[in-house]
Amino acid sequence: MDGRATRTITDQESLNDLCRHLSSCDRFAFDTEFVTEDTFTPVLCLVQVATAERLAVIDPLEVHDLREFWSIVAAPTGQVIAHAADAEIKFCRQELGRLPAPLFDVQIAAGLAGFGYPLSYKNLVRRVIDQDVRGTETRTEWRRRPLTEKQMHYALEDVRYLLAVHDKLRSELDRLGRLSWAADEFRDQVAPSHATAPEAFRRVSGVTSLGRRQLAVLRELAAWREAEARRRNRPVRSVAADDVLMDLARRQPSDLRDLVMFRGMNRRNLRRVADELLAAVRQGLAVSDADCPAQLPRPDDSDRVRLLVGILQTALAVLCARENVPPAMVATTGDLATLVRGYTAAAQLPADSPLASGWRHQFCGRLLVELLDGKLCLSVSDLRAEIPISVEPLGG
Is residue 259 very low, low, confident or very high in pLDDT (cuts 50, 70, 90)? Predict the structure, then answer.
């Protein structure tokens, strides 16, 4: 039985007391419950916190000023622990306007320690410390009050074991000599480059098929959609779907008659903003040629590249299997394709490749380059072995 004191924080004074406690701790863990389905920005509904002495649930729908809590997350006196922390990092930035200090993300740590990646919280707790997490409220409506006893129990389960999981993972990473790997990943997770999304128009599906003038029109349409979604506090794609923006960028209607000819304009909500859509199209057409967005270069997707990527994928799978590291944590297919294209063009690892520096370069980057150079080869070494393929020096 967990002997920690449990509290629900519904007033500012209680939150201040919790924050004083967190400031005195050498570590604490936290998690959030939020809803994203029908708003522009996620609605934070609960913040769960665990220390060695306390378990607490903060109710942001009752306590409206959580800046002191987020300030502690951003500049803690000790280690802050979370699971799959991208959402928590975004909330910190949303509330404070800045990114937090690196968190110890147990999902990342579990992958580097050989437990698998990405693991749900439930599976991670079972594999790492052999505890069962009983929770059935993953799809609950967290905005509704009052919360049920089951909801509160589930919320606390999400942080109850995080300190014990942290201890086990840190010890295992230390044993494997991978604490520095984890530290690199935690720093990267809160790096400004990681947290900054591309411009809105670059996130539209199919954008690479457009010419520069069409991109200029799409840029204006996407900016309008983003502003409208923010104003109405609605999900971006509920304001106008990607296919509608792409169609408008290609056809560039000049008046209402042209506009309503699009199939997408049969959607009732778009007819109400027809003038705004036409204005965005006109703004894109008025941009000078020099100021139109650059097209992203089409990557070489030849059979040669695909073949070499396939070889590197096999080599990476062999290396990862031998060291019990999930390939998904090391490099994506896109990363390997970038390596192939860059190396065949310039005979060196592209500087922006994740395999060019850090633990990934040490782990496999150099070996993959030597494979492309013909200094290493893949060999079927033992058909009966669990890992029947090896990466060996050519002729070795």
Answer: confident
Bridge-based pairing of strands 54-58 and 5-9 is parallel
The CATH class of 200-291 is mainly alpha
Q: What's the pLDDT score for residue 1?
A: 59
The fold for domain 5-195 equals Nucleotidyltransferase; domain 5 (3.30.420)
Neighbouring CB atoms inside 10 A of 55's CB total 19
CB of 4 closer than 8 Å to CB of 49 = no
Token readout for 362 is: 């040490």
Is residue 181 classed exposed, middle or buried when 0-12, 13-18 and 19+ CB atoms within 10 A define those classes?
buried
99: left (phi over 0), alpha (psi -120 to 50) or beta: beta
pLDDT exceeds cutoff 60 at 396: no
Between CA 359 and CA 189 the distance in angstroms is: 15
Q: Look up residue 192 and give its two tokens.
A: 């400004």
Residue 15: what pLDDT? Answer: 98
* Over residues 343-357, mean pLDDT: 87
Whether 345 contacts 355, CB under 8 Å: no
Spatial separation of the C-alpha atoms in residues 145 and 152, rounded to whole Å: 12
* CATH topology identical between 5-195 and 200-291: no
Name the CA dihedral angle for 5, 6, 8, 11, rounded to a multiple of 10 degrees.
10
Does CATH number 1.10.150.80 belong to domain 303-393?
A: yes
Which sequence spans correspond to the domains of the chain? 5-195, 200-291, 303-393
Q: Residue 78 in contact with residue 25, Cβ under 8 Å? A: yes
Q: Could you give the 3-state DSSP secondary structure of residue 28?
A: strand
Cβ 109 vs Cβ 170: under 8 Å: yes
Q: How far apart are CA 11 and CA 249, in angstroms?
A: 50
